[in-house]
Every structure is written in C-alpha cells, then in structure tokens.
Amino acid sequence: MLPRRPLAWLAWAFRGPPGPRGACAPGAAGAWGRRVGPRARRGCCTAPGTPEVQLTQERYPVRRLPFSTVSEQDLAAFERIVPGGVVTDPEALQAPNVDWLRTLRGCSKVLLRPRTSEEVSRILRHCHERNLAVNPQGGNTGMVGGSVPVFDEIILSTALMNRVLSFHSVSGILVCQAGCVLEELSRYVEEQDFIMPLDLGAKGSCHIGGNVATNAGGLRLLRYGSLRGTVLGLEAVLADGTVLDCLTSLRKDNTGYDLKQLFIGSEGTLGVITAVSILCPPKPRAVNVAFLGCPGFTEVLQTFSTCKGMLGEILSAFEFMDAECMQLVGCHLNLASPVQESPFYVLIETSGSNAGHDAEKLGSFLEHSLGSGLVTDGTMATDQRKVKLRDEQEDCPIAGPLEPEVQPPVSGNSAKSCVE
Ligand SMILES: Cc1cc2nc3c(=O)[nH]c(=O)nc-3n(C[C@H](O)[C@H](O)[C@H](O)COP(=O)(O)OP(=O)(O)OC[C@H]3O[C@@H](n4cnc5c(N)ncnc54)[C@H](O)[C@@H]3O)c2cc1C
C-alpha cells in the first residue's frame, strides 16, 4: 500500500555532461595516491580554489514542487526524535549537497542522522504530515545524482545506521542496518571465511542500503549474480512512516508477493531501506587474475566466449576497458599498464578451491588465446600484483566519468554481458 500523498523523493535519471575523455590535467598524475576512499576526492575535501559546483536548479530547467520549507518547529521536532543528529551547519552541509561527480548541487539546509528504523519512521511521519520533501542518502557515491537534493529537500543520511544485526556462520546470511559501509562488511564476513556477494570501487564509502537502492552490480556479478538474487530480505520505511518488515533470511521463500524486489533499484523513490538480509558466499581459497591486451572489440567478445568455455565454473569476473580508459587510469591514478599498449584490455579473474588446478586451467586458456591471436599480450598476476591489477580496473570510474556497466548492445552481443 502506498501513501496517499505523492512521494517527495526525486530520483534523478540523468548525469551531467562528462568531461573530455582522455583529457588529463597537468600534474594530476599520482596526486591521489592509492586506495583512498572515494569520499576524499569529492566535494567535501576539494582543494581551495576548486570551482564551486553549479546549483542543479540553475543548470537544469527544474521546478520545485509545492512542498513546505523547514521551520524552527520542525527542527525542534527533529531534535526530539534524533537528539544530536540534526545538522544545520552550512559548512557541514556542503559535501552532502554535492554529488560524487561534482556535477549537481542542491541547497538543503538540514541533514538528519537517525540510528534506528524507529527514528526513520518518526522522521518520515513528521515530514509526511508537514509535506516536507526528503532525500535519502547513503555514502553519496551514486553516479546519477539521486543521492543529493535538487532544491532544499531534507537529507536523511543512513551514516549512523551501521550495526551488524546478525551473521550465521553456516548459511553465510548477514543481516545488517542499511548504513553499513560495504568495505567494513567485507572485512567482517571475511574474518569468518565468507565474502560479500558484491564488490565495487566505491566500497570504502558506499552503504549497503545505497547498493540495494541502486541495485549496484560491481565486480562479482558474473559469479554471484545481482542483488535481486542475493538480497534475501529487507526492511524499509515508507513515506508516511509505516515500517515494512520483509527482513526474512529464508533462501527459499515462495509465500506471497516478493515486495523487497520493488525496493531493489528504487533509488529512494519508494521508501528508506533501513536493514538488509544478504547471502554471502564462502571465501574462495584460490584467486587468480590475468590481464590481457586485445587487438579489437571482436577479439574481446571471442575471448569472453573462449574463456567461458575453457574456465567454466572457476570464472568469477570478466571485464574490459579500452585504450582511452587505460590512459585515464594512467594519468589520474599513476598506474602503468602491465601489458603492452593495446586497443582493448581484458581482466579475467578465477575463484576456486584448488590453486594448482585453477592456475593450470588459466594457464592453458592464456596459451590458447595467445596462440590463436585473440590476445596479443598477457600477464597472470602473482599474489603481490593481484590486488594492484584489480584496483586498476575498480578505479576506472575514479579516473574518469565512465560507467562501464551501462553500454549499448554491440553487434548483436551486449557489451554489458562482457563487463558483468
Ligand atoms: C568509484 C566508484 C565505483 C563504482 N562502481 C560501480 C559498479 O561497479 N557497479 C555499480 O552498479 N555501481 C557502481 N558505482 C555506483 C554505485 O551505484 C554506488 O557507488 C553505490 O551503489 C551507491 O551507494 P551509496 O551508499 O553511495 O548511495 P548514494 O549515492 O548515497 O545513493 C544512491 C541512491 O540510492 C538512494 N539511497 C541511498 N541509500 C538509501 C536507503 N537506505 N534507502 C533508500 N534509498 C537510498 C539515494 O537516494 C540515491 O537515489 C560506483 C561508484 C563509484 C564512485
């Protein structure tokens, strides 16, 4: 059941115009160093002198809907609901008003930091009664502008909703609050010999609730599937404050409607996700990474087919990037390609339980691909270099405004399937 009044949340389905591809600011190389959380590179910590991001309402022909504005009484009510969790300091509000790509800026004057679903429910009930617009925000790493207000919407941050509620060490089912940072969850389950079913370059900042709200794909999608399969249940609070409890931990649940699916990918338009139950796979014992140079896109596709055939059950990721993308990575992240210059690059990851068996399979695949001309150069990562190769691929969105998972179909084959 949806609330009577139309939802105040606006999910933005556009991106700002990308900067020139391949362009590289002089002196930028290496300035960011390695493995810094994306937040450190965004609006919140911009160097003095960086131009201010233009207001979204000035940049686009958008119209504010007739919502109320936040009054002193509203602030007092929020302070009663979340004591100490009402942020109105203009300086502290700068970063949450600007999106990760620094192309959009809202002018919210209030950010709320609840700790529990009950607090979220009370906040939304108040906003509903007062006709106040709300914009849910997780780690603010989204790339389509949905995480930041357009006008003066109240920002509802899940940053303090960061508790693990339970973890079952036999089934691998993790139940946690929506504001848990993905990287912290990864560390937590890895200590218990499991991994998160998703991994992406924004993991140091993004929240699991934001991941679910954006139906984030990431680097493990090929192996473990999308969040539509691994999210077993969730809890959400609707615009009128109603708590929707679908936080089941059942893998097989064929009772009634699967309401959680509506929230996966809903970008905050249906409610605020407050908790998630997610299935974590066991940690693979052996991981190998190969990085290859390909002479053309046709060869990338053929390499993908060959690789699926020859590596079968141990293939866990297949990703490609073009020469321009590699140039951006080199320029902005100071990383050199581990193989000779090529029009396309492919990263292949295998995950299995027997290191010797997996390395042998990957080795014969590489031999075949090099022999048949599908790839012109390649390297298999040793343990020390695995992480570096993987980071290079993960950080592509950091190096430039690219969204490798959204690609048009190419020659009857979907390029998306190649980067899953
Ligand atoms: C370096 C980098 C790499 C990335 N790699 C990938 C990738 O490989 N694959 C991929 O799919 N995406 C990728 N992304 C984008 C990705 O979608 C986001 O990084 C992430 O999933 C968003 O999580 P967040 O917590 O930052 O959400 P935010 O950016 O804060 O919010 C995103 C949207 O979800 C809504 N939202 C947030 N939390 C909630 C909640 N609790 N309830 C309801 N709505 C909510 C917001 O209103 C907004 O509409 C990448 C981004 C970066 C910066």
From TrEMBL:
Its cofactor is FAD. InterPro entries: FAD-bd_oxidored_4_C (IPR004113), FAD-bd_PCMH (IPR016166), FAD-bd_PCMH-like_sf (IPR036318), FAD-bd_PCMH_sub1 (IPR016167), FAD-bd_PCMH_sub2 (IPR016169), FAD-linked_Oxase-like_C (IPR016164), FAD-oxidored/transferase_4 (IPR051264), Oxid_FAD_bind_N (IPR006094). Its EC number is 1.1.99.39. It is an enzyme of class 1 (oxidoreductase). Transmembrane segments: none annotated. One of its GO terms (biological process) is carboxylic acid metabolic process. Keywords: FAD, Flavoprotein, Oxidoreductase. Residues 390-420 are annotated as: Disordered. Residues 410-420 have a biased composition (Polar residues). One of its GO terms (cellular component) is mitochondrion. PROSITE patterns: FAD_PCMH. Pfam families: FAD-oxidase_C, FAD_binding_4. Residues 104-283 form the FAD-binding PCMH-type domain. One of its GO terms (molecular function) is FAD binding. It catalyses: (R)-malate + A = oxaloacetate + AH2. It comes from the Eukaryota. Belongs to the FAD-binding oxidoreductase/transferase type 4 family. PANTHER family: D-2-HYDROXYGLUTARATE DEHYDROGENASE, MITOCHONDRIAL. Catalyzes the oxidation of D-2-hydroxyglutarate (D-2-HG) to alpha-ketoglutarate. Also catalyzes the oxidation of other D-2-hydroxyacids, such as D-malate (D-MAL) and D-lactate (D-LAC). Exhibits high activities towards D-2-HG and D-MAL but a very weak activity towards D-LAC. This is D-2-hydroxyglutarate dehydrogenase, mitochondrial. It comes from Sapajus apella (Brown-capped capuchin). The lineage of its organism: Eukaryota, Metazoa, Chordata, Craniata, Vertebrata.
